[in-house]
Write a structure and sequence with these properties.
By secondary structure, the chain is α/β, with parallel strands linked by helices. It has a domain at 4-81 and 123-254: Alpha-Beta Barrel (TIM Barrel), CATH 3.20.20. It is built from 16 helices and eleven strands. The protein starts with a helix and ends with a helix.
């Protein structure tokens, strides 16, 4: 295909796939799309072998890296922040709320759960210093894109990308955000509608795409990827008919055989409908769309202590939800009620678990069919 994104990234089909799983990233790129590894959850020591594995299994195809550098973060300018020092800031009522919620679902709230799965004295991963270290490691590998969410990338990130000849992408949820990104020097805009899984705004994709294109047109020409609820090639074609240069996808890969999600969550995805997701602060402290569960209901219902600001909320949510996943896998039916993950409203279109390659193939087939139907309408 002849789009700005295809030329920029050296791909034939402008389908970008965000995933925390290296297997999905490699499989998408091998199948003709473009895999993007969510790197924020890795330490620098962990990321190096992950990227080496991708290099060895991607058949020379291009891929990218996504980091998370929140522009507005309560600890943004603090030095020496660790998980232990942050955990000390969590109010007792929030700890008690989580303990009671876990106990109600047959999970013993142990000290290990409160401290989480990381080393207590490890540096906190959402600060700029951590992300830049991840990028430094990434540039020792043949990456073709770096992306950032939750605000304008810091100048150091933009400089790194441009010095290495690698495009810098940024996610936005409103046209005014896109304007700031373009003026800052971002090369690709990912316009993510409120249907999307994870952190998202409130404007729907079908409205956001033309708004963003109109807003940035007077500044300079920047390709815009459509994101939010896109689970099929027909949806992708519809977004490109509105002017998008391709699609940025995430939720659809969670229901693949290669994904990092548990079998229980995949089954819940298949059972879910589009109304079974909720935009809540209960996981990260910022509004993010996830599968509705007993966890999200508790944080949105009466009697909850109120979500803490990012990053404190994650320090109580992630360990607790990890414990719920483990308990559910061991056969605890009450724990299954708590199981959730970031997923968009497109979950209602998931009918079965498929291989990543099959999903890419179906995207291509649906896309071609949709374009053919449009051509037929014009010819008539």
């Amino acid at each position: 295909m002849n789009t700005a994104i295809c030329k920029m990234l050296g791909i034939d089909f402008p389908l970008l796939a965000f995933s925390h799983c290296r297997d999905v990233v490699a499989a998408v790129s091998r199948a003709g799309g473009f895999g993007v590894l969510g790197a924020t959850g890795f330490t620098p020591e962990q990321l190096e072998p992950e990227l080496k594995w991708i290099d060895d299994h991607i058949d020379g195809k291009p891929y990218g890296i996504d980091v998370l550098i929140p522009e507005n973060l309560s600890i943004k300018n603090e030095k020496g922040v660790t998980h232990r020092s942050l955990a000390e800031r969590i109010p007792p009522q929030h700890k008690d709320f989580v303990r009671e919620l876990l106990s109600r679902h047959g999970i013993e709230p142990s000290q290990a759960i409160e401290e989480g799965r990381v080393q207590p004295d490890a540096p906190f991963s959402l600060q700029q210093e951590h992300a830049l270290k991840l990028l430094e490691i990434s540039f020792h590998h043949p990456i073709k894109l770096i992306a950032n969410a939750l605000g304008v990338p810091p100048q150091a990130m933009l400089d790194m990308g441009h010095q290495h000849g690698v495009p810098v992408a940024a996610l936005v949820g409103a046209p005014e955000h896109a304007v700031r990104q373009v003026k800052a020097g971002v090369d690709i805009i990912v316009a993510q509608g409120g249907e999307a899984g994870g952190h998202c705004g409130e404007v729907s994709t079908i409205v956001l795409i033309p708004e963003v294109l109109r807003a940035i047109k007077p500044i300079r020409e920047v390709p815009v990827l459509a994101a939010g609820g896109i689970m099929t090639g027909r949806q992708m074609a519809g977004c490109m008919a509105m002017g998008a240069a391709g699609a940025w996808t995430g939720s659809v890969w969670l229901a693949t055989t290669e994904s990092e999600t548990s079998e229980i969550f995949r089954q819940k995805m298949i059972e879910a409908r589009s109304r079974d997701t909720v935009r809540s602060r209960g996981r990260t402290g910022k509004p993010s769309r996830q599968l509705r569960s007993a966890w999200t209901d508790a944080w949105e219902g009466p009697g909850n202590p109120g979500a803490l600001p990012m990053p404190l909320q994650s320090l109580i949510s992630e360990p607790a939800l990890h414990a719920a996943d483990l308990a559910a896998e061991r056969g605890n039916p009450k724990a299954r009620e708590l199981v959730t993950y970031f997923v968009g409203q497109g979950v209602g279109l998931v009918e079965s678990v498929k291989s990543t390659r099959t999903v890419v193939k179906e995207f291509m087939e649906d896309f071609v069919e949709a374009i053919s139907d449009l051509h037929a309408l014009v010819q008539e």
